Amino acid sequence: MSIHIVALGNEGDSFHQDNRPSGLIRTYLGRSPLVSGDESSLLLNATSTVARPVFTEYQASAFGNVKLVVHDCPVWDIFDSDWYTSRNLIGGADIIVIKYSVNDKFSFHEVKDNYIPVIKRALNSVPVIIAAVGTRQNEELPCTCPLCTSDRGSCVSTTEGIQLAKELGATYLELHSLDDFYIGKYFGGVLEYFMIQALNQKTSEKMKKRKMSNSFHGIRPPQLEQPEKMPILKAEASHYNSDLNNLLFCCQCVDVVFYNPDLKEVVEAHKIVLCAVSHVFMLLFNVKSPADIQDSSIIRTTQDLFAINRDAALPGASQGSPGNPPLRVIVKDALFCLCLSDILRFIYSGAFQWEELEEDIRKKLKDSGDVSNVIEKVKCILKTPGKINCLRNCKTYQARKPLWFYNTSLKFFLNKPMLADVVFEIQGTTVPAHRAILVARCEVMAAMFNGNYMEAKSVLIPVYGVSKETFLSFLEYLYTDSCCPAGIFQAMCLLICAEMYQVSRLQHICELFIITQLQSMPSRELASMNLDIVDLLKKAKFHHSDCLSTWLLHFIATNYLIFSQKPEFQDLSEFVYKELAENITGASTQ
User: Fold this and answer.
1) Bridge partners, 62 (sequence order)
2) What is the pLDDT of residues 15-35, one digit of tens each?
3) For residue 201, what pLDDT band results from cuts at 50, 70 and 90?
4) Domain 2-34+53-138+154-209 classified CATH 3.40.50.300?
5) Which GO terms describe its cellular component (predicted)?
6) Distance set, CA 289 to CA 131, 269, 424 (Å)
7) Rounded to an integer, what distance in angstroms lies between the CA atom of residue 267 and that of residue 337?
8) Which residue, 19, 75, 355, 470, could crosslink 493 as a Cys pair with Cβ 3.0–4.6 Å?
9) φ and ψ at 306, to 5 degrees?
10) CB-count exposure of residue 3 (10 Å: 0-12, 13-18, 19+)
């Protein structure tokens, strides 16, 4: 399939000394990212004595596989010397561009009076673009006397250009210079729009001819009628806080046990969760040193409240990770230790439900002074280094966001060896992780680490079928409850990984990302993008993404004329037709 463009007129000083054109058309073909190919000049045997060529022919490729033929005629003598050729050029054109210099009014009136009527008779319902090129050098108002010709040498006004466009039913553009903005985005955007319209019209005519032809033996496409409503994808609600809160009660992957001053076990916990909200626990578990924190109040709180016991005779909890028994921590403050289970539940819930914490502590401590003392110690544990502790009123902070959203969060430990108790081996590289987070956020991981599997007893776990970048994005979602794919391809890879580990909410997020990206693309970008939409559809169906596959089918039906030009679409047209027929028929029966 090809597109034929005819450009008429001289936009100014558009020739070098070697007669090589360098004007509007050549500049566009050389700069447009959608056009590629080599040019070749074709000189006609014109009887004119002008040293310049009558017209120049450019041949290139547009939108990947569409042949683009451009005839640039800088002089109007072709209508006088070779009417047959000029009539065939205009009659066979898909798009016509008429260009002129705004500072050459004499030539403008000559063209308007002598050649525009000829062009109007030869036009065959094709789009026309009027391009006024240059910056006006004389902005004085011309004489309005109908018999006066004193303004013949002045610039062409905008009103005159618009009037000419109205006579031809054309689109009027003013290009003040031949730079990237005016050529690539302004002129190029309008021209490429008409190119896509021409392709759609030719494709439609081609499909009609196929239907009329008895020699067509392929599969006939179904009627691509849109249903009343497109499939709607709704994002699944987050259960991030509940996942981490449930981790405290399930007692899986425990790596720290708290004891009271009498060496009786109080509660089990996880280092990674505690360190995510508190620099006190970072200091206690050697994630950071006193020199890193540089806050005497945090150092003092750690020393006053906790002590690590390494006595082997001390009774311990069940083993958390392979070969690593849980760390034993003595809670020095008896009142704080009595309320420790409520404090940990408050921390695992995101450390923002202060009013509930105060009520739970009051049930265990009758004295209001003891309650205030314990609450104050909790505030000290959650203190940010170098900042004054301003959590004075618990009720004031009832509606604040959980501490997972602040600077001390689980993202700090993503792909870092600190406190890591499992290492994934992917594509020859290693990625450290934390079993407690994986178990809390992914049911497949929980079954893998707690069942009778090899992974439950191994520290190094190989991962196959997923790239390192995709797996890191998957872990980022588990740790932070958010992800930001770099593009549609990575989003599909992440969707496949989420389906493999059965994380349904991440699948929905990837589906919404792909749909949003495709919906926001203009037609010219859809035509030129290096993305196999059919392969995307097949992957969505294979990995049980029913909502996305249904949406992609309707998206293909809507933009069928664009996608049908792609070679990969032609190869798999039978698959697409079959899916469209099944889904659209099913939608109509419902």
Assistant:
1) 35, 66
2) 344 444 467 888 888 776 666
3) confident
4) yes
5) Golgi apparatus
6) 69, 22, 27
7) 9
8) 470
9) -130, 155
10) buried
